[in-house]
Design a protein that fits this description.
This protein is mainly alpha-helical. It is built from seven helices and three strands; from the N terminus they run ααβαβαβααα. It has a single domain, classed as Rossmann fold, CATH 3.40.50. The chain has a three-stranded parallel beta sheet with strand order 1-2-3, with helices on both faces. Strand 1, helix 3 and strand 2 form a beta-alpha-beta unit.
Length: 124
Amino acid sequence: MLKSYGLYEELIGCENVTITKPLGYVDFLRLIHESYKVVTDSGGLQKEAYLCSVPCVTIRRSTEWVETLDQGWNKLCAFDKDEIVDLVLSQDPEPKVNNSRLIFGRGNTSEIIRDAIIYRYNKK
């Protein structure tokens, strides 16, 4: 898509932009975690950036992950080169504390399910 919109050649020359071939999930998460900011049109990457506490610019009109917008970690924009560049270069206001564990659960779902099964089984 970058080539079809004439953006590939511009990006390849940017010193702070790395274009890679597809990566495995763990390597991809490492890159997100080490990034200053993420630019994506993906639904899932918005959440992964949020969970890594990395600001995100999402090139879409809407998102499933409105919590990331509400917390200030994600900004939506149209497919407009100038707007994308402005958002990437802008100094984001201090995002709210990343309470991802509170927003997306506490990481103890399996224990909750286990306890519910044990409780139900013991009631019989």
